[in-house]
Amino acid sequence: MAKQYDLLFRLLLLGDSGVGKTCMLRRFAEGEFDPSHISTIGVDFKMKTVQIDGLRVRVQIWDTAGQERYQTITKQYYRRAQGIVFVYDITDLPSFKHIAKWAGDVDEFAPEDVQTILVGNKADEELRRQVTTDQGKKLAETYGMEFFEASASTSTNISESFIRVTELVLQAQKRDMDNLFGSLDNNLDQAALQEEKSSQDNDAQRTCAC
Ligand SMILES: Nc1nc2c(ncn2[C@@H]2O[C@H](COP(=O)(O)OP(=O)(O)OP(=O)(O)O)[C@@H](O)[C@H]2O)c(=O)[nH]1
């Protein structure tokens, strides 16, 4: 059977318990919103295929438990992540402050070239807001990340966030390939030059011998 996708990427959702990671993933993968909060135990994942630059990219998105007691398990998933979505809740200041802790863990356990974005979820809850959009933007800037305010409830910026981090992973992979082929081309050029030079040397030696 023909393969249903061209590329497979692994993404990870990180953030405090209750910020809405599972709801965001469910909204993106299944188009649904369930307001009940059943804390994720350890990790769970969902898949979705998206089209980017004419490629069918299958994303495997790992939803991690925000609760401290599962951190030993969840950290084992950082190593294989290519993209990470940091999530805080705009109505919950501590969840915003803890992004520094999540980012520190990523520095320690994820690959160096992992692509990251920052998302402030529950943007529909304007009246209960504790974190301004400006604060979100500034924090994202500090870490060199792109920033979105989103709502799993109204679906605002959910696809946009997941697609953007997938695009960043794709761009990073293309850069790696370009570098690889660039250095291969370079090596081949060097080898061709070397060969040409030694054949010229041989010609010169033959001319001398005559
Ligand atoms: N108003 C509003 N509520 C939301 C939104 N997203 C999630 N929630 C609510 O936030 C609560 C927690 O959502 P979850 O998705 O279970 O949170 P989580 O981050 O996965 O939590 P853990 O699995 O414990 O790490 C639920 O009661 C949701 O209804 C949103 O965009 N707007």
Automatic annotation (TrEMBL):
EC number(s) from the headed UniProt entry: 3.6.5.2
Subcellular location: Cell membrane
Gene3D superfamilies according to UniProt: P-loop containing nucleotide triphosphate hydrolases
Listed Pfam families: Ras
Topology in membrane: Lipid-anchor
Catalysed reaction, written as an equation: GTP + H2O = GDP + phosphate + H(+)
Primary localization: membrane
Transmembrane stretches, start-end: none
GO BP annotations, alphabetical order: protein transport
Molecular-function GO terms, alphabetical: G protein activity; GTP binding; metal ion binding
UniProt family annotation: Belongs to the small GTPase superfamily. Rab family.
Function: The small GTPases Rab are key regulators of intracellular membrane trafficking, from the formation of transport vesicles to their fusion with membranes. Rabs cycle between an inactive GDP-bound form and an active GTP-bound form that is able to recruit to membranes different sets of downstream effectors directly responsible for vesicle formation, movement, tethering and fusion. RAB15 may act in concert with RAB3A in regulating aspects of synaptic vesicle membrane flow within the nerve terminal.
Subunit structure: The GTP bound form of RAB15 interacts with REP15. Interacts (GTP-bound form) with MICAL1, MICAL3, MICALCL, EHBP1 and EHBP1L1.
Protein name from the UniProt record: Ras-related protein Rab-15
